[in-house]
Design goal:
It is built from twelve helices and twelve strands. 55% of the residues lie in helices and 15% in strands. The model has no long low-confidence stretch (mean pLDDT 87). The protein has a five-stranded antiparallel sheet. A five-stranded mixed sheet has the order 7-9-10-12-11. Strands 6-8 form a two-stranded antiparallel sheet. Bound molecules: adenosine-5'-diphosphate and magnesium ion. The site of adenosine-5'-diphosphate (ADP) has 20 residues, from helix 10 and helix 12. Adenosine-5'-diphosphate binds next to helix 10 and helix 12.
Length: 429
C-alpha cells in the first residue's frame, strides 16, 4: 500500500506540514522553557516573600486578620475552617508548585489555586503555621493566553499550504504542456515549439524537448522527401517498362505476364510508400459511422474465391479522417487476405468500458509469433511468412500511425482457434 503521495503537490504539502509540526513543537518547547517556567518561578518567589512578610512575627499575623490590612494589601489570612468556606474548597491543589513553595519556605507547604477570569487566587498553607491559609490574589500575571499563538500557527500553516500549492502549480503547468507536446510527437504530430518559461530546470528540459522535437521532425521530413522522390522517380521507368512489355512478341507471352505482375507489385509498394508519407494530410476528422466505412472498404478489397463475413453492431458516430481510416482498414484486410487462406471475419462493437468503438479483423492463418508483434509495427519490417511476397513492410506502420492520430490503439493477438485477430479501438470522444 502506498502511504506517501505521488504528486508534487501532495509531497510539497506533506513536507510543509511536517516542517510546520516540527516548528510548532519547537515553539511550544521554547515557550515553556524560556517564558512559562521563569514566569512561574518568579511568581512563586513573589508569593513566598509575601508569606514570609505576613509571618514575620505574631504581631503582624494578628494584624493580618484585620480588615484594614486586607484592604491595603489584598492579602487575607484564614483559619482552615474559615478558609474552606471562603473558597479554599474549590481551589485546585498544584503538586509541583507546592513542592517548589516548600523549598522556598523551608518546610512542608501546600499551594492551591483558583482561576476566575483575569484573576488568580493563590491559597498557601505555610509550614511555619500549618493551621492558617494565606490567600493572595494576583491579576494579569501567570500563563499568557496562548490562543493567539495557535491562531498564528494555523494561519502560517494555511499560508504555507497555499504557497506550496501556487508554487507547485507554477512548476506543473509547463510540465503539463510538455507532457501534452510529447504525446503529440508520439502520435506523429509536431506542435509549435513550447514557450521556454518556468524555473531554470524546466526551461532546460523544455529547450531539450524543443530541440528533440525539431530533430525528429527534420528526420521525418527527410525520410518523407526521400520516399516521395524515389516513388515519383520510379513511376516513369515503370510505365516505360510496361509499355515495352506490351509491345513484346506473342512468343514471349509468359515473360510478358511475369513482367506485368512485377510492375503491379512495384506499383502497389510505391502506393504504400505514398500512403505512409501522406498519413497526415489535410483530411479533417468528421463524424461518421465506422460500419459504413468498413462496408466501403470491403467492396474494394473483395477478392474472388475468398469470403469476408461482416458482423456489424450498431455504433455511435465518431470523428474519423475518412480517407486515412479507410486506408488503415484496407491494410488490415489486405494482410488478413494475404497471410491466410480461409474466410475472414470482421466484427464491430463498443468496448466494455463504453469509451471506444472497435473493429476486429480475424483470419485463420498462421498468426504472428508473440515476440515479433512489437517489431512488425516498425516500418519496413516483415515477418518470415512474408519473405518473397510483394509487401513493403509498411502496412502495420501505416495502420498504427493512422490509428494513433485518431487517439486509438491497435492490438494484434493470436486467436486460440488459430489465426490472427487485429483489433482497433477508437475513442468515442
Ligand atoms: N493477418 C496476419 N497473419 C499473419 N501474419 C501477419 C498478418 N498481418 C501481418 N502479418 C505479418 O506482419 C508483417 C508486417 O506486415 P505489414 O506491415 O503489413 O507488411 P507487409 O504486409 O508489407 O509484409 C508481415 O510481413 C507478416 O509477416
Ligand atoms: Mg501488409
Amino acid at each position: 500500500m502506498r502511504i506517501l503521495p505521488r504528486s508534487a503537490f501532495g509531497q510539497t504539502v506533506l513536507l510543509i506540514g511536517f516542517l510546520l509540526l516540527i516548528n510548532q513543537v519547537v515553539s511550544w518547547v521554547s515557550m515553556v522553557y524560556y517564558i512559562i517556567q521563569p514566569n512561574t518561578q518568579l511568581t512563586n518567589e513573589l508569593l513566598a516573600k509575601q508569606v514570609r512578610v505576613v509571618l514575620i512575627d505574631d504581631d503582624l499575623l494578628r494584624k493580618a486578620f484585620s480588615r484594614s490590612f486586607q484592604e491595603k494589601t489584598g492579602i487575607e489570612v484564614y483559619r482552615e475552617s474559615d478558609a474552606l468556606s471562603s473558597g479554599l474548597a474549590e481551589a485546585t491543589y498544584l503538586a509541583h508548585r507546592s513542592k517548589e513553595m516548600s523549598k522556598l519556605l523551608d518546610g512542608d507547604a501546600e499551594l492551591r489555586l483558583t482561576q476566575g477570569g483575569e484573576q488568580y487566587i493563590f491559597w498557601i498553607r505555610p509550614p511555619q503555621s500549618p493551621h492558617y491559609w494565606i490567600r493572595i490574589p494576583l491579576s494579569g500575571l501567570e500563563e499568557a493566553n496562548f490562543s493567539p499563538l495557535t491562531v498564528v500557527l494555523i494561519f502560517l500553516g494555511l499560508l504555507s499550504v497555499i504557497g506550496g500549492w501556487l508554487f507547485v502549480r507554477q512548476i506543473n503547468s509547463p510540465l503539463k504542456a510538455l507532457q501534452k507536446a510529447a504525446e503529440d510527437v508520439g502520435r506523429g504530430e509536431f506542435p509549435q515549439p513550447l514557450a521556454e518559461q518556468g524555473t531554470t530546470e524546466i526551461v532546460a528540459v523544455t529547450q531539450a524537448f524543443n530541440h528533440m522535437s525539431r530533430g525528429i521532425k527534420q528526420l521525418e521530413d527527410d525520410r518523407n522527401l526521400l520516399m516521395a522522390g524515389i516513388s515519383h522517380d520510379l513511376r516513369t521507368p515503370l510505365t516505360r517498362i510496361r509499355l515495352a512489355a506490351e509491345m513484346m512478341s506473342t512468343q514471349d507471352e509468359f515473360l510478358k505476364e511475369g513482367i506485368e505482375g512485377d510492375i503491379d507489385d512495384m506499383n502497389s509498394i510505391i502506393d504504400q510508400f505514398i500512403d505512409y508519407i501522406r498519413h497526415n494530410s489535410k483530411d479533417k476528422p468528421e463524424l461518421c459511422d465506422l460500419n459504413h466505412l468498413i462496408n466501403d472498404v470491403m467492396q474494394t478489397e473483395m477478392i474472388s474465391g475468398r469470403q469476408i463475413k461482416f458482423l456489424e453492431q450498431e455504433l455511435p458516430e465518431i470523428p474519423l479522417r475518412f480517407v486515412a481510416m479507410k486506408r488503415a482498414v484496407a491494410n488490415i484486410i489486405q494482410n488478413a487476405l494475404r497471410y491466410s487462406d480461409g474466410d475472414i471475419e470482421i466484427t464491430t462493437g463498443i468496448s466494455d468500458n463504453k469509451q471506444s468503438v472497435y473493429f476486429c479483423v480475424c483470419d485463420s492463418g498462421p498468426g504472428i509469433l508473440e515476440e515479433d508483434i512489437e517489431r512488425l509495427f516498425q516500418p519496413f519490417t516483415q515477418g518470415d511468412i512474408a519473405r518473397g511476397t510483394e509487401g513493403s513492410g509498411l502496412g502495420l506502420a501505416i495502420i498504427k500511425k493512422i490509428v494513433n492520430t485518431h487517439g486509438g490503439h491497435v492490438h494484434l493477438t493470436n486467436r486460440e482457434e488459430g489465426g490472427l485477430s487485429a483489433k482497433v479501438l477508437l475513442p468515442i470522444k
